[in-house]
Amino acid sequence: MDLRQEVVELIFRVAKIGKLKLNRQLAQKGLTLPQYFVMKMLYKKTYEEKKPISPADLSTLTGISRSTMTGIIDRLEKNCLLDRKQNPQDRRSQNIEFTEKGLNIVQDLSMVADEIRNEPLKALSEEQLLNLRDDLILIENYLKDHEDGDLVYLKSEEPGEH
């Protein structure tokens, strides 16, 4: 097997293992990966950046179609994790907000996700970690410089989950 092919396959396998572990934790809370991704982006906007967000803006931000976003929000609202509130600046639109239950769940799962992401890195020395980071930055920059215009780059803590 070609070395490049082997590296690519290893990257995908490592990512898949992490995704499977996170999926198990999400399933225990009755959530899917796309639902968690939406909740994480909502948390970032409403709690970290202190900005209200509409379903349409959340759709644009995540790269999830509006129709899919509506279904995700409907299910999260049905499970009492989110609420739709009328936008005080524009009565024709709504903002999405966490319920107390939803806020607690997204905060708990964020810690679990961090643990899942960080655990395998404990196998690396500080020097190996720095080298890995530098190499991944090179790869990311190459991909950005050679993208064909069809790719959507998300500034997310959950890459590839849209």
TrEMBL record:
> What Pfam families does this protein map onto?
MarR
All residue ranges annotated as the HTH marR-type domain in the record: 4-141
Keyword DNA-binding appears in the UniProt entry: yes
Q: Which InterPro entries does the entry link to? A: HTH_MarR-typ (IPR000835), MarR/SlyA-like (IPR039422), WH-like_DNA-bd_sf (IPR036388), WH_DNA-bd_sf (IPR036390)
Judging by the UniProt lineage, the source's domain of life is: Bacteria
Gene Ontology terms, MF aspect: DNA binding; DNA-binding transcription factor activity
> By its UniProt entry, which Gene3D superfamilies does this protein fall under?
Winged helix-like DNA-binding domain superfamily/Winged helix DNA-binding domain
Q: Which UniProt keywords apply?
A: DNA-binding
The UniProt record lists the keyword DNA-binding: yes
List GO BP terms, alphabetically.
Answer: response to stress
State what protein this is by name.
HTH marR-type domain-containing protein
Native species = Sporolactobacillus putidus
